[in-house]
Amino acid sequence: MANVSISGLTKSVGRARVLKNIDLAIQDGEFVVVVGPSGSGKSMLLRTLAGLETADAGTIAFDGEPVNDLMPRDRNVALVPQAPVLFPTLSVFENIAFGLRTRGLARAEITKRVERAGALVDLPARLSRPVRGLTAGECQKVAVAQSIARDALVHLFDEPLSRLDNARREPMRAALKQLHQEKRMTIVYVTQNHMEAMNLADRIVLLRDGAVEQQGTPVELFERPASRFVAGFFGALKMNFLTGTIARNEAGPAVRLANGGMSVPLPPNRLPQSMADGTSVFLGLRPEHMARAVRVSPPDGTMRYEAKIELLQPTGPRVCATFRMGEEPVVAELQAHDVSAPGETVAIDINLKRATLFDAETEKTLSPEGAVA
Amino acid sequence: MNGGMNWRAAAWLGVRYAVAIVALVVFLFPLYWLAVTAMKTPEEVLTYPPVWWPAAPQFKSFAILFERETLWVIANSLIVAVLSTALAVSLGTISAYALARSGLGGRFFAAWAVASRLVPPVLLALLAVLAFGRFGWAGSLVTLVTVLTIFNLPYVMWMMRGYFRDVPIALEETALVAGLTRRQLPVMVAWPIVRGGVFATTAFTFVLAWNELAFALVLAGDSAMTLPVLLAEIGTQPEARGGVAALCLVAVAPVLVALIFMHGRLARTLSLGLVRD
Q1: Cβ of B263 under 8 Å from any chain A Cβ?
Q2: In chain A, whose CA is at the least distance from the CA of B179?
Q3: Which CATH architecture has domain A240-366?
Q4: Per-residue pLDDT reduced to its tens digit, A254-263
Q5: Residue A166 pLDDT more than 90?
């Protein structure tokens, strides 16, 4: 296990710049999840760390030792590739044992580790069987077992659960996190799934077009997104983005919505002092930050809104209710019993203290002192 | 209903057996004909309508097999076929790995490999005589082995390139990360997968080399005569038909062995489904 420091990492494939000047410091024993849409450079980052790709510029160091010029075997990393391929002539056991045999471990130790790894990925009776006929999901499990059986400095996982069906994904995810809690391996884990990222990560790195858009704890990325892109990426429910302009009036700062001219008051000190009236912004409201009004008057920093419900999408204990603010559709997450049928009018308290403002031009978050959140 | 299905299945099985038996008879007939011809008297060989089974089977024709000269010819054939096959397969397999992994040869490699077979072999053989004659090398086993190796090399490279291309690069990457060096990849990763293909290619190359006539005829001369050349020479003499048939049986034997061997391997190679998405 090792800490990993990446600085100025740049990689082009043909004319496309796949990684752009990436700086990343990963602590020993940290579980880092790299997320981003497809084509954002996640896999390339892992392959470059593994030594399967050569960086054009920048350095990668494990425990302070540069590894740029080392072959994969000398970097001592484990990698679960995006589309794992197994040795077709070997059994499941031998596939998992492959990386242990090449490193000359004792036979008894190999057996112990393979069996433990096989049990962890829930491939109990399959070990002695040939790999022919395994499903894509089972191949992926074998690849994960291949990786966790090893004592690598860094464990790299490229969407290791993507081929499992939903019922199998949850327990595997839990098993991986449990394993990390026990062993404290250094893990770099790539996924497209924001929930998986939130579930697993000590720290999330969000990539966009080959550059780091934001990194931080799951809570930081959820609560204090640096840009509209980050805010839109995380959250079980999509954040509502309302287009508008800054308009200060006697009651304080507000956002005047572009469609319908409605005015949404902002809590004090929410805006940078220098921000001029008329600046175009997006107002970001999370569905989770709205609730049916229960008190007589709305709490501080909350706007009460009489919403005419147009669409209801139940999720079990809760319901997603669509209504309009001005002309724009907005989704709120309410309790299932808060509203019974579309067409009803419900008083909804919108917590504006937790709203996020984005500059319409740069799409960066606007925080009170103009600093990046 | 159920009985009807069984009747149908039985009928189908009967049809399949009937077709198989007819095919077997058709394909085994030449072997049978060689065997009876070798056992006939010279008169029986030449009579018309043909004699299906000799009145008194005799084995005099097989005496030619044990003549000193014939044994030399068989030995020559074996040496040429075995050595040129071993050379072509080992060199071709190594180059094919490089071709498959480097992308050298490009899309037209197959066409190039086949092109060497489009020219009449005699033409190539004559060119080889000119080239080797200059060094005084014509008319020896070494020359024949060399030329046959060169002639069969493109075929081996073409076949093996295909087998190597079926070994996923992702598998080699997995092996690299698991701790192998690049040099270990061909032996540790590719070999177990292409092994069946190598055996099949070896068997086929051996058959090609064993039966090769044009180069042997033009290049080898009397000192390095091979079986196909001997057959071509005495095959035109009607009174020698019995002996020719006996020789042919010997000539067919290794081919049959190679094909039977190849059949098992080839089937296995084709059914070796690689695990991938």
Answers
A1: no
A2: A73
A3: Beta Barrel (2.40)
A4: 899 988 778 8
A5: no
